[in-house]
Structure to design on (314 residues):
């Protein structure tokens, strides 16, 4: 009787499985050790993945339509320059109606990179630029793809801003631990002021980098580039928008904490109805004063003022 031989296990498959398991374990350890970095990178990748997917979709819907328009524009221009007949005026009118169409297919506005830019502007609700879908499929994709993209972008902006605030706070808190000699109020005011200053400087540096890039690539002046960066930073570019949103949020928190509370206290003090209520409360309690006994768990004690030494506990 022959012994049945056991099937051999493929050693390369075992090695591949072990390496994939090790990679997953390392990634999990990295996410546990650096949760903020992992969160920031994840949401940033989500933004770019959504933009690239949208770029492929819109490029598929709009690229060939604009390519045909470019071909028609070139054909009309050739007909006008080579023939002078009675249809020349009609062709000229048609040519002028295509003035917004690029002169060459290399400038097609619906290539994947430019379509991804359109996805960014749609998801950020700005609609920057003059590019818009002309086909029915492209317009339908704006509706079907735009709504969930706007929601995801909002979540991404919020999470990126949260990570940036947390990192800034931790950096300042670690520095404050080495300076224990200051008073608590002074430390808190200094902490908030430094946080807003760092965010403001980050916004300026971000805008300056963009202005220098536009100066080198497009030949714009630094002033024009700074103005352009300021406009689109407030409404489009995700990192700049996150910085501006965090900076505005810090300013709002500081304003609420330092001024709104004081105004509320002042309003309560100057409110005649509140003062009348306090006066009525004092008059009604002229013979009894209600106190809380810390020993009895917060039960009220009513102390009779006439005679002063008697007390009834409820």
């Amino acid at each position: 009787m022959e012994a049945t031989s056991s099937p051999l296990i493929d050693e390369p498959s075992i090695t591949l499985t072990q390496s994939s398991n090790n990679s997953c374990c390392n990634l999990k350890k990295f996410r546990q050790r650096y949760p903020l970095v992992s969160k920031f990178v994840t949401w940033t990748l989500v933004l770019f993945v959504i933009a690239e997917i949208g770029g492929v979709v819109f490029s598929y819907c709009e690229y060939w339509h604009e390519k045909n328009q470019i071909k028609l524009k070139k054909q009309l221009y050739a007909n006008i320059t080579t023939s002078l007949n009675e249809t020349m005026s009609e062709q000229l009118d048609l040519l002028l109606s295509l003035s917004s169409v690029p002169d060459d297919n290399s400038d097609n506005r619906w290539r994947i990179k430019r379509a991804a830019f359109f996805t960014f502007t749609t998801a950020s609700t700005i609609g920057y630029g003059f590019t818009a879908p002309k086909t029915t499929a492209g317009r339908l994709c704006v509706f079907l793809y735009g709504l969930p993209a706007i929601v995801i972008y909002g979540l991404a902006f919020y999470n990126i801003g949260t990570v940036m605030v947390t990192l800034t706070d931790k950096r300042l808190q670690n520095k404050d631990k080495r300076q224990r000699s200051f008073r608590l109020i002074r430390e808190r005011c200094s902490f908030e002021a430094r946080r807003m200053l760092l965010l403001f400087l980050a916004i300026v540096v971000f805008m300056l980098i963009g202005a220098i890039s536009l100066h080198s690539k497009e030949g714009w002046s630094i002033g024009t580039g700074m103005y352009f960066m300021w406009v689109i930073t407030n409404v489009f570019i995700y990192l700049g928008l996150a910085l501006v949103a965090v900076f505005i949020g810090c300013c709002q928190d500081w304003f609420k904490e330092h001024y709104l509370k004081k105004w509320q206290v002042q309003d309560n003090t100057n409110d005649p109805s509140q003062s009348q209520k306090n006066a009525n409360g004092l008059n009604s309690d002229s013979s009894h004063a209600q106190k809380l006994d810390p020993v009895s768990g917060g039960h009220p004690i009513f102390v009779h003022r006439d005679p002063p030494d008697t007390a009834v506990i409820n």
The mean pLDDT is 69. The first helix runs from residue 11 to 33.
